[in-house]
Amino acid sequence: MLEIKEKKLAEDLVCYHCGDICKDNSIAINEKVFCCNGCKTVYELLDANDLCNYYNIDDKPGITKNYSAVRNYDFLDDQELKSKLIDFTDSKITTITFYIPQMHCSSCIWLLENLYKLNPGVVQSQVNFLQKKLSVKYKEELISIKELVQLLDALGYEPNLNLNQESETKVKSENKKLYLRLGVAGFAFGNIMLLSFPEYLSTSDPENLKGIFAYLNMILSLPVLLYSSREYFDSAYKGLRKKIVNIDVPISLGIIVLFLRSFIEVVLDLGPGYFDSLAGLVFFLLIGKTFQNKTYEALNFERNYKSYFPIAITVRREGKETTIPVSKLEIGERIIIRNSEIIPADSILIKGKANIDYSFVTGESTLTKVNNGEVIYAGGRHIGSIIEAEIIKEVSQSYLTQLWNNSVFTKQSESKTTTLANAVSKYFTFVILAIGFGAFLYWLPISVATGLNALTAVLIVACPCALALSTPFTLGNTLRIFGRNKFYIKNVTVIETLAKLTDIVFDKTGTITDSAKKDVSFAGNDLNDYEKSLVKSSVKSSTHPLSRSIYEFFDTKIEEYTLDNFEEIPGKGIKSLIEGNEIKIGSSNFVKNYDEESSDSTAVYVSINNKVLGSFQIKNVYRNGLKEVVESLSSKYKFSVISGDKSSEEANLKKIFGTNAPIYFNQSPQEKLDYINALQKENKTVLMVGDGLNDAGALKQSDAGISISENINNFSPACDGILEADSFTKLKDFINFSAVSKNIIIVSFIISFLYNVVGIYFAVTGNLSPLFAAILMPLSSITVVVFTTAATNLFAKSKRLI
Amino acid sequence: MSVILILIIFSLLVAIIFLGAFFWAVKSGQYDDQYTPSIRMLFDNKKDKKEQNNNSTN
User: Fold this and answer.
1) Residue B36 is nearest to which of A56, A57, A129, comparing CB atoms?
2) Does any domain span residue A415?
3) Which of A167, A177, A432, A642 sits most deeply, having the most CB atoms within 10 A of its CB?
4) Looking at the structure, do residues A114 and A251 belong to the same domain, yes or no?
């Protein structure tokens, strides 16, 4: 009964802005309750501008704003930085595009597109929801970038300011080109089919319309040849120059022969030509290409450390605090780092006590205490009160960023594996040429014309349209099925690599352990309810991750008291006063006044009125289903674990991965990369599964690198695929699916070969009529498309992936 | 000249116009974002109505 009552109370007290549960109704306006002052401020701002429609479009659309402090955006006044951020300006009106990861519902779109109501300086703002981008046109004289960013931040939509956005625009313009090529091919295909109708129906032709139509067809097929199929010619040419016969070689050959033969037939008035087949072929091929080119626009697979680092930092110059862009940092500069800010360059600590979380750099999850005069490394996140440090190395020369000078990152990443289609096409092309010339030589003594006819017919009918379509449709569909299961991959070649794997390498912290969950237990005398209440109330006020874990450890029913006094000593623990009881929670040094080496977990000690009661043992929890994934894959693949962490978990890992699996600890990012490289030298195809920047090198070096992310909009290092943490258990299905996809492609190759055999039979006998070609080629393509799509879908269903 | 030829040429012209429209649509970025416009069209301008009401009552 009591429980129901409690629940009801909680339901009533839901923040009007963000939908979070409120502690009490102390923050409220007109019966509208808010969880924090941040949310209330946003509501007031919207209310004042008559923008409360925001709350009507989607349910509880707001973003929790636990802080009410406005961030310092002074660095945005820097002209050089500004010119890098904006898209275009004519010194009156400026256009800028922001990446806003918090955008999540239609209310967000509505509000962000109504920015002009909040500030008259905004001319127009437009959202691209899938890319989570907001492009704003504003008047320079009325609002500056800084004010614009402050406005967005005030609303809870803090833009992710980033300086390297070039690669994205390139992809976009390539997609545009593909659409245009497809449009032209479709246009030509439709019209040529229409004009070929008299030919198909073989009606009588008193006015020689067929002849005129043939010329029209020729004109229509010119743009297909010269524009739509350009990419195939380019790729074939590039391949041949490197002495590789890729799939585009037989395709290009087929297209050129199709056109030449048709051209000669029409000019010499021998027949109508195969223009319909030509246009159809290119049209289908381009459809396949479009299908395969599905990309996850909101995700970025090419991030380097720059997108993780802040773009600006506070420095102290001549006693004054100013904010400057990180790129302008010089050796000797004094930087000021606040709680949970990231250190941009290696520096020496000169003021304050630092607690650095290097988990993203090294994988080591415990905080590192740093004293005055010691070095703090770039990439670490400082937790605690303000510190000051002096830069000793340039940003690009820091320990972490040096990894990016490794050749893996500078090399243009070309596809590391030859695709199946390209491997097959090498033999395919030679066989087709052999058959064609064989037929030519056979007919030569009888009639040169028939010989040429047979040769060209073979090249035309054998044009591997179905072959070229089987890969994009199988893999394109697989990619979509993966996407539906929250596994986002960069492109379809990743699937082919996954199908060839021999080794799987895991990172530990954050990858196979669940960073959101902690296994908390209490060692010592059992606490009574009153003591529990005291501890629970104390940790509630602390934002430290360990305090959070301890807070969640307690039952919700345990009563909470208000604190009379609370003090958080960074790197040590918390001290609080409740009803005259002094509670100390923290490290052994802090609570017991001496250091105690903890064995295999992080220990947080508790004392009440200087009586030590025991300690909370906080352990990492392995992800749900890790065992399952390992067990089902271990027969086929070799596992290893490389961790930047201490070796404390070795026994547990051996239990999961077996005693033979190599497990390495204390690995630096470079060592991880080298390990992958060593495996590859033994001709192994390696999958690296990681999460942080410390895995970036290994992810890049590996044949396929998958990054695990709790939230796909957060930063993840450059990789081939991003797997959402919820779907970790499905990893085994994804890898198996990739292998099945490969088999589906092989079967569809066989189907298309069978069609080719039929076609070639007619071709070598010199009986290939244009109508027959126009039916056979699309038919084979459609069979392959239907087969591959159905097969992948069926398999996905059997694995419950769709 | 057969009338069918005139018709064919005319139909081709129409098709070319549509091809041109497609080119324009792609180049002006209408294919860049295929999701947001579908949401955007569902917003109604409530605010304007409210303002009008306010104006009329005042």
Assistant:
1) A129
2) no
3) A642
4) no
